[in-house]
Design brief:
Chain A has 290 residues and is mainly α. Helix content of chain A is 78%, strand content 3%. In chain A, helix 4 (90-119) packs parallel to helix 8 (165-189) and helix 10 (206-240) runs antiparallel to helix 12. Helices cover 33% and strands 23% of the residues of chain B. The chains are: A mainly alpha (290), B alpha/beta (252).
Amino acid sequence: MSSDLDRLMAETAQRARVERARNLVIGVVFLALVVTTYQATGFSLGDLITKSSNMTRILAGFEHPDWSLVVAAPDSPFYEFGPLNVHVGLIPHFALETLEVAILGTTLGALVAIPLSFVAAGNLMRRNPLGTAIYFLVRTLMSVIRAVPTLFWGILFVTSIGLGAFPGVMAVSLFSVGLMSKLFSEAIEAIDWGQVEALTATGANPVQVLVNGVGPQVLPYMIAHLLYTFEVNVHSATILGIIGGGGIGFLFLQYIEQFQYAQEAMVIIVVIAMTMAIDYSSATIRRRII
Amino acid sequence: MPLPLVRVEGLTKVFRGGTRALDSVTLEVPKGEFLCVIGPSGSGKSTLLRCINRLIDPTAGRVFLEGVDLTRLRGGDLRRARRRMGMIFQQFNLVRRSSVLKNVLTGRLGYQQGWRTVLPAYTATDRLLAWNSLNRLEIAEKAGVRADNLSGGQQQRVAIARALAQEPEIMLADEPIASLDPETAVVVLDYLRDINRSDGITLLCSIHHYELAKRYADRIVAMRRGQLVYDGPPDKLDEAAYRAIYGRLGRE
């Protein structure tokens, strides 16, 4: 009895020693990684300090941001949105374009992602060899789409279609398809299968089971994921303007290239305000749904 | 001798991984009977019920519903056979985010045809049947409430109403009281007995509560490791039989 206990104690102590050695190795490898990347990237606190005057000059724009760019004047650009025809300030004009790109891109992406996500849900598809084959095909396609950064898509579309909001919408749509079909299919995979079984047992056909059993379970999650994707897309659409994909990014690049820091500060303020407002309202709605 | 409502013949289910959940089970369920299937967890009770309405496809053997071999049916024929068999689950399996009425209406899905199957469009008959079922289970006042706002006992009553709305000939009840407290369990079993006695709906009920099975069943079959080890009237089920089924003495 006591020899058993001795053996157990020795084994436990041995296991603890192995664990300590392993943790030490992990620690050393990670440290080496940090040191080499520090050198490889030319990280330099010195540069950050000696060249801080440049940053200071840009940030000085925040002392007197150019508010005239936000207010509508008789000579400011005309904003057309359906029946809406109003003069708006230059920055709001471009900010609204960013929102347009994000809204349309998210919606188009969702229209493609919803059917795709059902085909990419393992619990629905991996029930026979054909379904499994389709499942893996769609999953792979989605991973490829997701692996291409939105900025790459943007440059590809701007190069092929030309400058403007449309290539921006295309880039955002494609990225959204990749993100939403992943999130949606994971929501479908997390459903309570008992509800599906119960409807199958009533004699319902597969479409009826999807509409009445799967739909109610995943709909709130789909709406929440859609809103989250919209938040991400507002960020993407902001950046896409820099490469000519429409929206406020264009102004960001233009003002910094022309050393107009008061104007640049105003752009940054509007971007921050817009993004925060959208993130906050979207998060509030998402919390209420789920 | 009239045709039994359900006849199970040499039913065998081997799951992937090799578990033999059902081992050549043969069983007849006459019309109108309240039949309880007892046995320890993992003895194959649930698999037996699910093989009958083909939620699980058996590996071998056949299931007849009034002489029709269900194991050969596919597509629409299988669905029409399924609507003749209501099913009740241990976890109720209501669509939790839908209202009580909507849940009971899904009992009518098997009767919809053509375009009606895509968009839920229930007929006046469907609605009447759903309301009558809810009324029968004395839970009609909850019709507009979301299913997940109900207590366990209430949810199971809604689930029974859903099965009743199918106008079934048999109800397959898979551990209908295992998630309920003792008092609620008796209430639910009383409803099932009433449906069995007044509507003549046959009941095939798996249950691991030995005493309750004896109290409610017309006949008891017991399973152990996928095989039938007892088939007879409840009063013949004594200590010796109990030991044979559960492999030990004593009660739950």
